[in-house]
Amino acid sequence: MKATKEQVRILSRLKQQAAFDSLRKTKTRWVSKGFSLQVIPSDTPDFHFCVITSKHAAKLATDRNKMRRKLRAIAYEILTTSAKPGMIYMIVARKDSLTRPMDELRKDLKWCLKKLSLNHDADTICPIPY
To answer: Is 39 in contact with 26 (CB distance < 8 Å)?
Structure first.
């Protein structure tokens, strides 16, 4: 499943350094096999997100770009439909996100949202991916 143009339009990417710094300092996070999710409340009712990949996660730039593309595609798809609006989401890639299948990464993101009590649709039950 790919994100539609409407989903991409709704979700804006975070580009301000101050927002990145405040996200790094937050204690609201949940770690899964493929990535960790950090969240802070936003001033606006919109969706904001960013994807972080470091050299710790993958040494080669092509691998980091691949991880970033996969995680960004999943964020566009899941955050617009299942996440609570008015929050800033930061997805930090881990080593396993490169080799982990897309379906497992989707389950991970839904699971992280459920564990952080940020699920927009509470009637959807997400199985624990472990």
So the answer is: yes
